[in-house]
Amino acid sequence: GAGVSQSPSNKVTEKGKDVELRCDPISGHTALYWYRQSLGQGLEFLIYFQGNSAPDKSGLPSDRFSAERTGGSVSTLTIQRTQQEDSAVYLCASSFGGSPGDTIYFGEGSWLTVV
Amino acid sequence: AQSVTQLDSQVPVFEEAPVELRCNYSSSVSVYLFWYVQYPNQGLQLLLKYLSGSTLVKGINGFEAEFNKSQTSFHLRKPSVHISDTAEYFCAVSEGNTDKLIFGTGTRLQVFP
Hints:
The complex is a heterodimer.
Chain A: E1 5-7, E2 10-13, E3 19-24, E4 31-38, E5 42-50, E6 65-69, E7 75-79, E8 88-95, E9 105-106, E10 110-114
Parallel strand pairs in A: 2-10
Antiparallel strand pairs in A: 1-3, 3-7, 4-5, 4-8, 6-7, 8-9, 8-10
Chain B: E1 3-5, E2 10-14, E3 19-21, E4 24-26, E5 31-38, E6 44-50, E7 56-58, E8 64-68, E9 73-78, E10 87-95, E11 102-103, E12 107-112
Parallel strand pairs in B: 2-12
Antiparallel strand pairs in B: 1-4, 3-9, 5-6, 5-10, 7-8, 8-9, 10-11, 10-12
């Protein structure tokens, strides 16, 4: 596709349920990022994949959060036992990943509401 | 660790007036600096970025930013704003050896007629 694609665009889930959010990066991009955007909190880095390197998981807020990237392309962010404070927009982004300062392209996000 | 501070959470301005959105960063190493814009109900898109060279960077939609190393700032400016510039603006920094961006908390620019 032309841009970073995320699904679902909106998700309402009950507290305690698990959710999966999917990201399809721009074709050819080796770097993939997940960020979380909460009201008044700005963008919070979650996790970063670069090629075959071990992912940078330093931003994951708890062990309920995990992400994987299969085949170097599609990524899934999983939140287990969701809590109300997990409600936010989850943004995926990708870049060529070859050089520092590469432009990062964002998807439109997955709006998660935990009730 | 690097961090980004956007002191103004909201900036109201009248149409055709000039505007400056402030951004300060902290980092002990060389950095790359970015401004992203998020229009209502849309994803983030790159406005401009500073990697090296001239400290004055021009971006899309008439915006420009100036890198000031001594003041560790990268303020965004536009000489005359339009209603369509109403959006959330995010400043971001990446250290020289990584693509990972650290964002500020954003500044909401509201342009009034």
